[in-house]
Design brief:
By secondary structure, the chain is of the alpha+beta class. It has 5 helices and 16 strands. The protein folds into 2 domains: about 130 residues, no CATH class; about 170 residues, Sandwich (Immunoglobulin-like). The N terminus is likely disordered.
């Protein structure tokens, strides 16, 4: 620990080992501007701020020492000694310099902070408590109402940043959408953009899954019972799933361009975890709404549940389209 800090102090100064005490390394203002999305990253940020403050104080103190500014040097080294859980070897080295600097400044060495009896387990708090009192991420939960006679089940909730770009979600392989009893199971599923989605036939006959929802249109071709096909979805938005053999089959796949999305259960309830605090646009898509609904919300650590509503005004299509988008006749008895 001591060797690492000494190396940082030496590297921070110009040739000759001195430091301009009037120009700190980066300044002693905390918290640092580090992106935080998870509790683990918040802990990492606090640890980084502690080490940054420690090195800044050590560099500044040495700079004042080199200039003979004993009062300023003593003050910075004493600030180091007040940090909790200071490593014993570092504390001993700093205490020696602080003692001499304080005496040369006309003070008494007895005014130094007391020697630590042990190294207690203390969580370091940055210099600006108000800036970290609020959690950096939180869980956004709520309930969706509406959806007409179909209810809110299956609604997809997507959160996008208002100030600044929303990062893309990580592309993943999504569990299979099963073709069973001439149905898509689940009927609606939300996936991140770039996802590879599996389509598995669990019926005793052939299926031909396709979509004409551009630009996510695709055609998996004819495949038998027990077979599985895959499709990558690279563009955000809703995708209507159909089967070219069974006209009664239809389902939906929603592709999210944000990593913060969720799907409401049958009662309309949803949860989105690890949402950074700040302003967000919340979009709600539902298969029976002609347009998604949007609203801006402020996400805070102590926020209550969101209450969202979605229309159910979309009418059933006049016909089931074929792969060319034209009407087709239902296949009876199959």
């Amino acid at each position: 620990m001591m060797n690492v800090l000494v190396m940082l102090v030496v590297m921070a100064g110009p040739k000759g080992g001195t430091v301009d005490a009037g120009v700190p390394l980066l300044g002693e203002q905390l918290p640092l501007q580090l992106l935080v999305k998870t509790p683990e990253e918040l802990e990492y940020k606090s640890m980084t701020e502690r080490q940054y403050l420690l090195v800044t104080l050590l560099v500044g103190a040495k700079g004042h020492w080199d200039k003979g500014e004993w009062e300023k040097a003593a003050t910075k080294w004493e600030a180091v000694l007040r940090l909790p859980a200071l490593p014993a070897d570092l504390e001993a080295a700093v205490r020696g310099f602080a003692k001499v600097a304080r005496e040369r400044a006309g003070g008494q060495a007895s005014s130094l902070p007391a020697m630590s009896a042990s190294e207690p387990s203390v969580t370091f708090m940055p210099m600006e408590p108000d800036a970290v009192a609020r959690p950096s991420t939180t869980t956004v939960a709520g309930v969706v109402t509406g959806g007409g006679s179909h209810g809110p089940g299956g609604a997809v909730i997507v959160l996008r940043k208002v100030n600044g770009p929303t990062p893309k979600p990580r592309a993943t392989r999504v569990r299979a959408i099963v073709q069973k009893d001439k149905s898509f199971v689940p009927h609606v599923i939300a996936v991140p953009v770039g996802a590879t989605v599996e389509f598995r036939n669990e019926d005793d006959f052939f299926h031909n899954v396709f979509s004409i929802s551009k630009p996510n249109d695709f055609d998996l071709g004819l495949y038998k019972s027990g077979a599985q096909r895959e499709q990558v979805f690279s563009t955000p938005g809703p995708v209507h799933l159909l089967c070219n053999i069974h006209s009664q089959m239809n389902g939906w796949l929603y592709v999210s361009d944000s990593p913060w999305f969720a799907q409401a259960n049958a009662l309309g309830r949803f949860t989105v975890k690890n949402v950074p605090v700040g302003q967000w646009e919340v979009e709600v898509w539902h298969e029976w709404a002609s347009q998604p609904t949007k609203q801006v919300v402020t996400v805070t650590g102590g926020m209550g549940e969101l209450s969202l509503n979605v229309d159910g005004d979309r009418r059933a299509p006049a016909f089931v389209p074929d792969k060319a988008g034209k009407p087709r006749q239902p296949q009876l008895g199959y």
